[in-house]
Amino acid sequence: LIVDGPSYQGRRLQPRPAGIPEKTRHAAIAGAVGGYCIWGNYTAINHQIVLYLTSRIILGLTTLAQEKRMSPFDWKFMTKRENTYPIKAAVVWSIVMVLFERYPHVLHRSLRKSMDEIYRMNIFDSSHKSNLI
């Protein structure tokens, strides 16, 4: 089934180039179906791709919020990437620290282990002193 733009009495009103959805919801539905059917099978590679896309989506949404002048992204100093990156990093790290302190069971095992090593190690233990130098 090929959808080729709107038609009226069998005639196309406006030709559409291939691959361009008629409505935004069409792209959303196609993404959902493709994501479920193709990328929905859990494998280590698919998981990494989904994690990568999640981070890129969050960055894209903050850029979109700046373009749309949504608060707090409409603040004057937040118009440049070099000004917004430290805020993005602060938000990400504040969230991970709260999760680590309050709900460590929801964090991925490798992240939780790294956080334990960084924040829970006994700095007075001689076996860890070489890591501090």
Task: State the order of secondary-structure elements, H for helix, E for strand.
Answer: EEHHHHH
How much strand content do the residues show?
under 5%
What is the tally of beta strands?
2
Biggest sheet: strand arrangement: 1-2
The end-to-end span amounts to: 64 Å
Apparent shape:
flat
Report helical residue fraction: 55-70%
**Rg over CA atoms:** 23 Å
- Main sheet summary: 2 strands, antiparallel
Query: How many individual helices?
Result: 5
What does this structure look like?
- The protein is mainly α.
- Helices cover 59% and strands 3% of the residues.
- A two-stranded antiparallel sheet has the order 1-2.
- A hairpin with a 2-residue loop joins strand 1 and strand 2 (11-12).
- The radius of gyration is 23 Å and the shape is flat.
- The protein starts with 6 loop residues before the first strand and ends with a helix.
Short description:
This protein has helices at residues 24-37, 44-67, 81-102, 109-119, 126-132; strands spanning 7-8, 11-12.
Can you give keywords for this protein?
133 residues; flat
Strand and helix map with partners:
Layout (H helix, E strand, L loop, with lengths): L6 E2 L2 E2 L11 H14 L6 H24 L13 H22 L6 H11 L6 H7 L1
Antiparallel strand pairs: 1-2
